[in-house]
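re: ur question from yesterday

yeah so i grabbed the chain u mentioned. its 360 aa long if i counted rite. heres the sequnce exactly as i have it in my notes:
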Amino acid sequence: MAEAPVRCGTIGFDYGHQGAFAGSLAKHPDAAIVGVADLPDAPDEARRRGWEFASRHGVPYFDDLADLLDAQAPEMVSLCLPPSRNLEIVAELASRGVHVMSEKPVADDLEDARRIASAVREAGVKFTFGFHAARFATPVSRAINAVRAGRVGDVRVLNGTHLQVKGPRYTISVEEAERRKAAGEPSVGELANHGGYVFLAFTAYAEARVTSVYCESDAFFYESYRIAGMEDMALVSLEYETGVVATAIIGRTTTKSMPTTDVRHEIIGSGGVLHVNHGLGDRAFVYGPWREGDEFNRGGFDTPTFGRPSYELYVDDFVRAIRDDREPELTVADAVEFHATLEAAYESARTHRPVDVAPD
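ran it thru and got these structure tokens back, copy pasting raw so excuse formatting
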């Protein structure tokens, strides 16, 4: 007899990734969406997106996550909330034995990430988080497997680029930045938003823990970022306990002509060099006819897709981790290490000195 599908709920549609994650769960052969919920104080726009998703998939919508948990008893949830809300929610979910797939970053700081890890470990539930392209984008996962198989010998040096393009479409306005500054609301910069895609891939290549970080960062392109105290570009150097050294450029540019995020990795080993020239390789770039009114101004680019996108593979890994009772590829320990690296990078950017990464 076939196993029953994993009962899945969603909590929060505050960010766009939830559409991809929840949509992947909805069509997964071993998962079933049983309900959608928001926090009682969720923004109206997030609540609207959640209600529309629930209506589209024929599942109940709840104004309060507690009602979802009581009425539908999900085995796992896809959590997509501001990082500041995650600690209390993950602790509640873990106490009920619910596995958690969280949006990134998982916390505001390292201390809260450690508290989340403690709650997850004490409850014995599984946890993963949304830096999916760091391990599941096909070119990156192939490179990780090649390195683990010894194809480049012992890894010595890593170089990377992760530049989010398409300009200000996803950035905050000056007015919103001023509102946040006046209200004292924290904002997530691009190192926290995208750094995990690099750090977590590099950790897999190096197969070692980061021990020190040097970082320079600033808001080079967006006035709103300067107002809100956010960086849009960072240069990060890392050293690992095995002696591997790495350098990465991480940020968001104003470029509109690139069709998608510019992701490149170079892995230099004792026995060879491996290049990943297009890290988000679920699509091809070809020249097509110029399209007037194209919001991305791609200059005639067309991007037909192929294969499975990284977010689907990430969701599949977590569902199968629950079914097989194993750890997912991205674990709560990885989340803590990411936040330790991020915290060291921010301190280095403030002091202009290398900073040791706090061990877990």
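noticed a couple things. The chain is about 40% helix and 20% strand. also The two ends are 43 Å apart (CA to CA).
anyway ttyl
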